[in-house]
Amino acid sequence: MNMKNDINFTRLIRKIILTLAVVFIVIWSMGPVIWIIISSISPIVELYSVPPHWIPHNPTLRNYIDLLIIGRGFRGATVVPAVEAFRRGLMNSVILATGTTIFAALISSITGYVFSRLEFPLKNLLFFIIIAVIPIPGWVVLITIYLIFANLNLLNTLHGLILLFVTYRIPIDTWLMKSYFEAIPKELEEAAMIDGCRRLEALFKVILPVSLPGIVAVLIVSFLTTWNSFLAPLILTFTEEAKPITVVISEFIGQYFVEWDLMSAGATIAIIPPFIFAFLFQKYLVQGLTAGAIKR
After folding, report:
1. DSSP structure class, residue 1
2. Highest mean pLDDT, choosing among 5-14, 62-71, 215-224
3. Rounded to two decimals, what is the model's pTM?
4. Could you tell me the pLDDT band of residue 3, with boundaries at 50, 70 and 90?
5. What Å distances lie between residue 9 and 21, 131, 278, CA to CA?
6. Homologous superfamily of 79-291 in CATH?
């Protein structure tokens, strides 16, 4: 009886520890997001109040109105209204994330299929080289990329950034798609080819529709990675024509003053598109990232 009580007590302790750990992780992860949302509806006076408080005494949507409609000047000047810079940055991020996602998914689907199904000389070596590129930090090659972009007149251009992000995404997306294609029985495409389909027709008409969860996983990861990119656009862009939303929000930090109210409202708005995108396709994300782990 005592042994049974000891086992139940041990299980209870484990559940309590696990629950506390989960609560801590949730608070640690969601705390900054909640604080940003609260700050976005707080007057500027309350943002500087000491001690800070979680619940705003006079909540307001003035920050969103200034950011999206009125266009209050920032960084100590009114030559670049906040509304103009923010709208342009938001549009640039949509173009960058969408363009990168589409091209990366298309190219990685083909390269992943090639490495998973075809046999050709130096196949394993080429795939190893592609995989070896993944761990290299992006900031290591930024100086080289800057010089190349300068010589090719790609600085401060959206198509230049899309080219960069697609190149960055192809190795890991190829790896993901290769793993997913390897989990699909070869008999599917063989049956399609027996029915008269060429290999590319079998890929686009049979394999890709079956691979929808894997493709959606690549789309989501590519979209979120590109949307959240900051360092490369910060270095490679210098006007509102090409700056994404992440860089625009950082420019609310001036030399003598920080526009915490506009920054918080901008960050809250910037969170919405990737959140909706990930929420709508989360089922496919889980399926796509785990399917390649099972061999059939």
Report:
1. -
2. 215-224
3. 0.83
4. low
5. 18, 47, 40
6. MetI-like (1.10.3720.10)
